[in-house]
Design a protein that fits this description.
The chain is mainly beta. It has one helix at about 1-15, and strands at about 35-50, 60-75, 80-95, 95-115, 120-130, 135-140, 145-150, 155-165, 175-185, 205-220, 225-235, 240-255, 255-265, 275-290. It has a single domain (about 1-290), classed as Outer membrane phospholipase (ompla), Chain C (Beta Barrel).
Length: about 290
């Protein structure tokens, strides 16, 4: 119910937003004619401090830095697309200390060969990891917090090589289906380890099939929505499917001020047996480069 209310509120905000903002960013026109780019950098910060405040309240702050780039070069024979997503943020709450609010380092590079106007063979590479250590928080018998590291930079890290056929009818929609070789790197936390063997594996190689569905739509010059559904199934069977569904609604309230509403859902058996969910509402300074 909370998520539905959030979507309804965002839809109202979109319908009331004034469609008078100019398109493009601060570097618009700097790229060659055969290149297009959608690049946004943002900084968000919230701070609350309470002292002897009788109406209830807990001191806290949250900071977050994001960089989202979609850059594509087009030629007669092929198109080259690069996606970069960098998210980093922390939350501090009095009595609980610091927790991660966001942590992602993602790069994907694809080359599409223009076999026809809509069907395009492609090859590509993808890399994903995190920058800060991740922890699991529990309490001991005395109620004291116990912090246990469960992940770190390059542990886990994922490197994937892909090749297949893409259906791209327009700039808003694309569907990719192909063979993928997904490599998992984990030196200390066991994300690449096979529990059925005695040896501790730090590296795992998984060949399989991959599907990527993308949709991007600009409702106006100031309102945009994008969605990406990724799924990977190794050749061991359908019970080993990993997937991630990412959705982001962006509303430019004023120059350099943007509201973002996001909903992500993920499943990775190596991380957890249950599905993972993330809902976010971000409001802060945003610099659109292109």
């Amino acid at each position: 119910m909370k998520f539905k209310s959030l979507i309804m509120a965002s839809a109202v905000a979109c319908s009331l937003a004034a469609p008078a903002m100019a398109e493009g960013g601060m570097f618009e026109g700097a790229l060659p004619e055969n290149w297009t780019a959608d690049v946004v950098a943002a900084v968000k910060y919230n701070f609350y401090n309470f002292h002897n405040w009788q109406q209830d309240g807990t001191s806290n702050y949250t900071w977050m830095i994001t960089y989202d780039a979609d850059v594509q070069g087009k030629w007669k024979v092929a198109n080259w697309r690069n996606l970069v997503d960098i998210d980093l943020g922390q939350t501090w709450v009095e009595g609980f200390g610091k927790r991660k609010a966001a942590d992602r380092l993602f790069w994907e590079s694809m080359v599409d060969f223009n076999m026809t106007e809509v069907l395009k063979p492609y090859v590509g590479n993808r890399f994903e990891t995190q920058m800060l250590s991740g922890y699991e928080y529990t309490e001991d018998e005395d109620g004291n917090e116990v912090k246990k590291a469960v992940s770190s930079f390059m542990d886990p890290a994922y490197e994937t090589q892909v090749a297949g056929l893409a259906y791209i009818p327009n700039d808003m929609f694309s569907q990719r289906l192909g063979f993928a070789n997904r490599m998992t790197i984990s030196n200390g936390y066991g994300y690449a380890d096979d529990a059925d063997t005695k040896k501790f594996e730090k590296f795992r190689d998984e060949p399989g099939l991959e599907s990527i569905t993308e949709f991007k739509y600009a409702l106006s010059d100031i309102v945009g929505f994008k969605s990406r559904l990724w799924a990977f199934c190794n050749f061991e069977g359908v019970e080993a499917i990993d997937g991630k569904w990412e959705n982001l609604l962006s509303v430019l309230i004023a120059p350099l001020i943007e509201l973002q509403v996001g909903y992500d859902m993920a499943y990775d058996l190596d991380q957890d047996k249950d599905a993972q969910y993330k809902t976010m509402v971000l409001f802060g300074l945003t610099w659109r480069w292109f």
